[in-house]
Design brief:
The chain is α/β, with parallel strands linked by helices. The chain has 16 helices and 19 strands. The mean pLDDT is 92.
């Protein structure tokens, strides 16, 4: 671990689930007519690849204080059916727009807590979404399950409507850490739902682990990884905790900043954790993500077919991703659109028969080119990079920003290619920032992003 490199590169930066990143979307946004036109256009061009659907289910019974997701905390379950009805109505608005039987390639249920909803209501949701649609032969349906409230009935009901992948949020098994982040779930709870998933027939099980949490120590992190290895999930997300109290507000203040690991301690958590994961047979396939060789996420990475969008890393390289539900973000490749962020406004706009977007961005030619390079670096740790008529306006300035990474042996530029070295993989966000023309033209004057390291 190089302390000097950490001090040099540990700056606020985006995670690049999109380019441009949301804070740099054009202020004029995108109106419904323009958004709908971009959806129809890309669908007609790319319909054979199918559509990815992200469905945001925002409800949670309690607040996990490390979470930066858009959620709604309640113990009232009478909110379930009205919300699901609105999601189905929103999908029907898109169905009318496309005016034919769409091909569905991918569905992901995120949150919030998708398993806040009853198994029957989740099954009703999926059956309603897929009704009168074609399902791709190599489809992938996945959902996020909370280990404390995912039942075998949840797993079976979703399996019955095509789900084969499930992700469980573990975070950390240390009870002191769990108490600090208000996410108390013993190993036995995770073990139970993990084994149920295998019994039901799920072919890909993922666990999420977070480093940099309050009171987290190296020995506790390594113990979490060893316990995780006993269950052998097919995939692992090994996330850096994004400490953004200026976004999350009071809920994130269940602990003091002094309770967080120092920058050097946090980097040690990652580097020693990564070593432990690799010694257990997990391969790093992208920023924060690891997989066993037997999982198709690894094979897609190996074959340079991996894709990344607002759902994270995926094996499905669809050009149209439609987000349903409050706060969901959609991607038509040439445009982004985000739904309104409150449940109340979401219901109101759906009842008015409107696709409920409140902001967006139409990508220009420059955006599309930079997006391509950032996506390739994020997915393959390399990209083709040479001066040509498309990029000559900013080639030299980007190269100048890349020079320090070459000097520090974090990347190489050879034969018109940029290749991130093994040493450089932890700094991939910083490398992408060198390409981010919008960020570099307008440096933020207020806090926008979490630290990169």
């Amino acid at each position: 671990m190089n302390i000097e490199l950490i001090r040099k590169y540990n700056v606020p930066g985006p995670r690049y689930t999109s380019y441009p990143t949301v804070p740099y979307w054009d202020k004029e946004g995108i109106d419904n007519k323009t958004w709908e036109s971009s959806v129809k256009s890309i669908y007609q061009k790319e319909k054979s690849y199918g559509i990815s659907l992200y469905i945001h289910l925002p409800y949670c019974e309690s607040l996990c204080t490390f979470c930066a997701c858009h959620k709604h905390i309640t113990k009232r379950h009478d909110v379930e059916l009205p919300y699901i009805d609105s999601v189905i109505k929103e999908w029907n608005l898109y169905r009318e727009l496309l005016d034919e039987k769409p091909l569905i390639k991918e569905i992901h249920l995120g949150g919030g807590t998708p398993t806040f909803f009853s198994p029957d209501i989740l099954k009703h949701l999926i059956e309603s979404i897929t009704e009168n649609c074609e399902i791709s032969e190599d489809y992938e349906f996945s959902f996020e399950g909370h280990p404390n409230n995912t039942t075998k009935e949840h797993l079976q009901s979703l399996y019955d409507v095509g789900f084969r992948r499930v992700s469980f949020g573990v975070q950390d098994y240390d009870p002191i850490v769990q108490l600090a982040i208000n996410r108390v779930q013993p190993y036995e709870n995770v073990e139970k739902v993990h084994n149920w998933s295998k019994e039901v027939g799920y072919t890909s099980i993922s666990h999420d682990i977070v480093f940099g949490l309050p009171h987290q120590k190296l020995e506790g992190m390594l113990e979490t990884i060893e316990l995780t290895n006993e269950l052998r999930p097919d995939r692992l997300a090994f996330y850096s905790y994004a400490h953004v109290p200026w976004i999350k507000g009071v809920g994130s203040r269940g602990y003091d900043d002094n309770d967080l690991p120092s920058n050097e301690e946090k980097r040690a958590l990652y580097e020693e954790g990564k070593k432990a994961l690799e010694s257990n047979g997990y391969f790093e396939i992208g920023m924060d993500h690891f997989a066993l060789k037997s999982d198709n996420l690894y094979s897609h990475y190996n074959e340079e077919k991996l894709h990344r969008n607002f759902m994270g890393y995926t094996t499905n390289n669809t050009k149209l991703m439609i987000g349903l539900g409050m706060s969901s973000i959609s991607d038509s490749w040439t445009g982004f659109a985000q739904n309104v962020k409150t449940v109340k406004e979401y219901h109101q706009l759906i009842d008015q028969g409107k696709i409920p977007i409140f902001r967006g961005h139409k990508l220009n030619e420059e955006d599309l080119l930079i997006r391509k390079h950032i996506l390739e670096i994020m997915c393959h740790f390399k990209t083709n990079w040479k001066k040509n008529i498309n990029n000559e306006k900013y080639f030299d300035q980007i190269n100048e920003r890349l020079s320090s990474f070459v000097t520090d042996n974090l990347m190489q530029i050879t034969d018109n290619k940029i290749i991130v070295t093994e040493k450089g993989k932890p700094f991939v966000r910083n490398i992408c920032m060198a390409f981010d023309l919008r960020l570099n033209r307008h440096k933020p004057t207020t806090k926008l992003f979490s630290q990169t390291i």
